[in-house]
Amino acid sequence: MKSDSQKTFHVKSFGCQMNVYDGERMAEMLGAEGYAPAAEGADADLVVLNTCHIREKAAEKVYSDIGRLKRADGSRPTIAVAGCVAQAEGAEIARRAPSVDVVVGPQAYHRLPDLIARAQRGEKAIDLDMPLESKFGALPKRAGGQRPTAFLTVQEGCDKFCTYCVVPYTRGAETSRPFADLIAEARALIAGGAREITLLGQNVNAWDGADERGRVIGLDGLIRALAAEDGLERIRYTTSHPNDMADGLIAAHGEVDKLMPFLHLPVQAGSDRILAAMNRSHSVESYLKVIERVRAARPDIAISGDFIVGFPGESEADFEATLDIVRATNYAMAYSFKYSRRPGTPAASMDGQIDEAVMNDRLQRLQALLNEQQQAFNERTVGRTTRLLLERKGKHDGQLIGKSPWLQSVHVTAPGLAIGDMVDVRVTSAGPNSLGAEPLMEEVA
Ligand code: 5AD
Ligand code: SF4
To answer: Is the distance from the beta carbon of residue 165 to the nearest atom of ligand 1 less than 6 Å?
Structure first.
C-alpha cells in the first residue's frame, strides 16, 4: 500500500524478454528503496523507460514516450532511460530530450538508486559502465511475483557479431551467470508461485557453468538440475543459436519431461551467401541438420524462428531461398522483420541496401507463408488432449487463457479453475493465433 508521502515509480519495458526481466528486477529494487508502483507513467514520481535498440522503430519509440510524460500542469516525473538505447546513444539522449535525468545501460542498472539521487541534486546522471562484477550480486533477492510463469536470465551478451545486430555492443560480451545463483533464484521464484520458468539469454544455449560438484555443464545440465526442483512444472529457454545446439541439449528434449517441446531457433535467412554476409557462421544445411536431430529426439517439438528480409545484397533468388528454408523447416510460429540499418554495425555500411518497397513485398510474402504454417500447426493440435498452465483471464466470463506445451494460447472455460492451475483439456478449435479447448473433467463418484 502506498502512503501519501511515499514516492511512486513506473517501469515500462520495450523489446525482448530480457528487458522484461530487467524491468522486474528494477521494480523490485525500487520497491526495496521505498518506492510504490504507480499504474500510469505520468502520475509517477519516477519513470524508467527500459528501451530496445534492435531496430530503428523500436529505438525511436523512446522519444515519443518521453514527450508524453508531461503532465497537464506542465510538470513531469523524474525520467530515467535504461536498456539498450541508453547504452547505444548515451549522453546523446539527454541532449535530444533535455527532460531526461538519468541514462543507465543494461549492465549498470543496479546503481539506479544512486543515479536517481544524483539527478535529484540537479545532475544529469549517466552510467554506461559494463563492470566486470555483475549487477546481479548487487540486486535485492527475488521475491517471486505470484505469477505462474517467470523469466530467469541465465546468460547475457553475445560474441557472435552478426553483422546487422547491435546486441554485442549494447549488452556486451557473452557471460553466463553461476549455477548456484541460478538455482537459488529459481527456488525463490518457485516459492513465490512460479510453475514455469523460461531461461533467458541472447545466446542462452551457450550457457555454461560448474554444478555443485564442480563438474562443467552446459544448458542441458542446468535444465536437468532445475527439473529436479519440486513445484516447478515446466522449463523453457530462449533464444538459441544453431551452432550452440549441443548434443546434450538435443538429447534433453527427448529425456526431460519438464522441458517443453518448443524450440526458438532463428535462422534469419535461407541463402548461404546472405548467411555468410550476416556472419551467422552456420549454413542452410547445418541448420536443417540441427532441426532434423531435434525432431528425432522429440518428434512433436514446435519450431519457431526469426527472419530478416532485405539484408544488404539480398537478391530475389536469395529471398526465395528463405521461402525454401521455411518450407523445409515447417514452423509452428515465427517472427519476421525488415532489415533495419543500425548505426555502428558492419551491415549498415554494406553496398546493396534494399529498397523499402522491395522489403515490404518480401516481408508480406514471407509472412503469408509463415501464417499458413502457423495455422496448419494449430489445426493439427485440434482433437488432441494436452495440459495447460493457466496464465490469465480471457475476455468472457469464466474464461481463462493458458499455454499449451507448444506455447500456443488456449482459451478454456470451466468453473472452479484459477490462474496458476494446470488443467487437462481436449483442443476443440484452432485460429491463427489461439486455440479453444474444453477441460477433461474427471468423473466425480
Ligand atoms: N534489422 C532487422 N531485424 C533485426 N534483428 C536483429 N537485428 C536486426 C536488424 N538490424 C532481428 C533478428 C533477431 C531478432 C531478435 O531481431 O531476427 O533474431
Ligand atoms: Fe545478435 Fe547474432 Fe548475437 Fe543473435 S547471435 S544477439 S542476432 S549478434
So the answer is: yes
Instruction: Give residue-wise pLDDT tens across range 61-94.
Output: 899 999 899 888 889 999 999 999 999 999 899 8
Q: Which of 308, 335, 339, 363 to mutate for ligand 1's pocket (most ligand atoms within 8 Å of CB)? A: 308
Residues 413-429 have pLDDT tens digits of: 988 899 999 999 999 99
> What b/e readout covers 101-135, taking b as 16+ CB neighbours within 10 angstroms?
bbbbbbbbbbbbeebbebbeeeebbbbbebeeebb
CA distance 309 to 364: 10
Ligand 1 atom with the shortest distance to the CA of 340: 1
> Rounded CA gap, 230 and 1, in Å?
32
Cα 245 off chain centre by? 18
Q: Which residue reads 488443467 in cell numbers?
A: 423
Kindly report, residue by residue over 4-22, the tens digit of the pLDDT. Answer: 678 999 999 999 999 999 9
Assessment of whether the complete model's pTM goes beyond 0.70: yes
Residue among 103, 94, 93 at smallest CA distance from 125: 103
Q: Is 269 helix (H, G, I), strand (E, B) or coil?
A: coil
The protein residue with its alpha carbon nearest to ligand 1, atom 2, reads 339
H helix runs in 33-178, sequence order: 56-67, 83-89, 91-96, 112-120, 167-170
Helices 219-227, 179-191: crossing angle, 10 deg rounding: 30
Strand partners, 216: 210
